[in-house]
Amino acid sequence: MVHRVGVYPGTFDPITNGHLDIINRAARLLDHLVVGVAINVGKGPLFSLEERVALTQEAISSLNLNHTRVEVKPFEGLLMDFAEEQGAALIVRGLRAVSDFEYEFQMAGMNARLKPRIETVFLMASERCQFISSRFVKEIGRLGGDIESFVPPVVRGSLSEKFSELDRLDAENP
Length: 174
Fold this sequence. Notes:
Largest sheet: 5 strands, parallel
Strand order of the largest sheet: 3-2-1-4-5
Number of helices: 6
CATH class: Alpha Beta
Helix content: 40-55%
CATH topology: Rossmann fold
Distance between the termini: 62 Å
CATH superfamily: HUPs
Radius of gyration: 17 Å
């Protein structure tokens, strides 16, 4: 029997219900899924790498993944090198809208040139998750809006703590 390994990469700052939907659906297609949490300092993440890995692990622990082994690992550098190190044959990417497709299509082409043996597979966001993005979740949460339907409870609590900490720092350093 072939052991199918895939990598689902992202910044996961923070992980959302949309990410969890893709993880859950990808797990049905694979024997082993590695959720790769990218360092990506260029995006200026709200959470540290360690916090993002921990939040992602905790959020995934609530999923019913049947017999699929799911691991969360941080990575730096080229995604395709990381995927090859994991023994992956697939990169899993989620698409929410046409605007996502243009970027992802170019990225898939570049990745195919780097490592032709590793395929990129796109999963369309479920209709209930098409509009969810980490950026919007952070903005809504920062402004005191209700993010309950967008993120798992562990993320809601962590965002609340992070925003309280930022507010405290802002008050101390006007």
